[in-house]
Amino acid sequence: MLERPYVDCAPKGRGCDFSWGSLAVLEDAVASNENIFATSTELLAWVGELVGGMPDALRHSMIQRLSQLLRSGGEPDDCLADDPVFQQLNGAFAILFANEMGFSVVTDPLGATQVFWAGRHDGGPVCAGTHADLVAGVGGVAGEVDRTSVAQFLSMGHCTYPHTMYKHLIECQPGAVHMMRRTENGSRSSRLRSYWSLPPEMRTGYNEADLADTLQAVLLTSVADRCGKRKTGVALSGGLDSRLVIAAIPDDKDCVALTMCDTLNREARTAQRVATAYGRSWVPLFRWEEYLADQLEDVVRFVGCECEFVHAHMFGFADAIGGDVDVLLTGDLLDTLLRACTAKDFNYRHRWGGLLPRRYGRVPFDGLRFPADLWEEQFVQRVLGAMAGRLKDFQENHADSGRGSAAESLKIYPFRQWVEVAVWSAHRRRLPIRLVGADRRLLDLAFRCPVELKLGDRVFLKAARQIFGPGLRIPSANDGVQPCSGHLWRLVQRAKRKSEDRLVRISEYFGRKAPIQHSWHDYPAYWRQSKKLAMLRREYGPHLNRLDGVLFKHSGQALLEDESLSWEHGLRLLQLAVWLGQSKQYRSMYNGRH
Fold this sequence. Notes:
With 594 residues, the chain is an alpha+beta fold. 39% of the residues lie in helices and 16% in strands. It contains 21 helices and 18 strands. The protein has helices at residues 56-72, 132-138, 147-156, 208-224, 241-248, 266-277, 291-303, 318-324, 334-338, 373-378, 381-398, 406-411, 420-427, 440-448, 451-454, 458-468, 487-509, 523-529, 531-540, 556-560, 567-593; strands at residues 13-18, 21-26, 36-38, 43-50, 91-99, 102-107, 116-119, 126-129, 169-171, 176-182, 188-194, 232-235, 255-261, 281-286, 327-329, 346-351, 356-362, 433-434. The strands form five sheets. A six-stranded antiparallel β-sheet has the order 3-4-5-6-10-11, covered by helices on one side. It has a five-stranded parallel β-sheet with strand order 14-13-12-15-18, sandwiched between helices. It has a three-stranded antiparallel β-sheet with strand order 8-7-9, covered by helices on one side. Helix 3 packs antiparallel against helix 21 (567-593).
């Protein structure tokens, strides 16, 4: 069953039977396919990125400690934060341990490698794993779609943690040990023990220079610890996050920069200049006309509707990239963690028409809002009410009044709330990707850093200045400004970029179409013109009919075929249709196995 989503490129795996049930795990390319250790009585395995791997000493300590926890059970509120074994865990991983007593699953601090748990209150089977649809199927809950979660996915691109697309399937808490064991009387008992939690944000008594110096050291170490033995690839854009990653690669490491593009636009040319500045080779990966549609079905087999497929940007180049490098690094999560991109309760105002530096201040923020627009007219009223109630519950349970930004506290943790979830969830299964942004040292520092120091890239640029080196001379493709520029020089560069953009608009007005200058597609045109997307709409659209009357007021299929539907709404709705069709096939497979 675990091999099914991979179609013809499934890795090898191993299965084990115990008196309480069965388990299976696949070899993991991110772990160099050395992620399974089994004896006649127990098994220890992991998937995803475990920084430093599992050396013998850690493996023996981990087996001993997890076995002890299974025996004792412990109290639900017991914390393992000071446990020396769990303090060694770093990365984006899920660890599995099992013996005759039961099994334990260890989630990473951020919950980047998601673990899902299915179980009914009526004593049915319990199932845990990293693939939502498989867990739902084996756990016997695949037939009950959570329409509130589906509505949230269509509106926001994700549903609120810990909910999933299935009524009786939840996402496990990050940074914890989840245990299921058999008791002496033959019944089962579940326990949860946390080993990492969100550190409090420093509101007073901090030193900005010290924080920047510490962040610089952490960034350099986090990147160096993830470099490959043979060749490291960096997914390089024309922005600052991936530039920081390639700048931090040690000089003695072989490295290649990889940039996806439809044409050699401004983003690609900037990336080429950055790679040249650091003395690294640069390889453009040109997307073909139907690249996006060609990845849709494959990505959905791995992520379902737990996140948006469009963010799995490099999935289609998995074979080419995997054959060239043994590690792929990206700048994912750095803007969210270090640059306050989710702090929507702060905004800047111009002073003296922009002649003076920006000043940030608080603005009204409503964490209960969701983008209703189209859906307010299309969803049945009771679903709209359920969505609002779930958002309210999430805010009450996760808003942290002790943090500087209420908006950031709602978006930054848990990981499900970020668009990068699809980047990791899909890519790690096909690409040798490692997630710098999920480094535990970086998380501890980023969550402690005051939001005021993140605004305007303040602490980020102070930490990155020395790391950037020659990359400081190259303007960002996003705003045309060289990193760490002074205010007046920034104004000059912004004026130059605006003039260039104005000339492009004038040229387009007279009929000369300019290429898209950023790294991705012209989504509106692609949604209207793609022949394969049109074919997928016809093939999978009928599956939306099962939600008519329970989610959609009218016909979901007719809505998908509406030519006036925007690409943002259309791509999510098409992903839902594809997922409903694939999940139907999964249910048939499970029924046959049972």
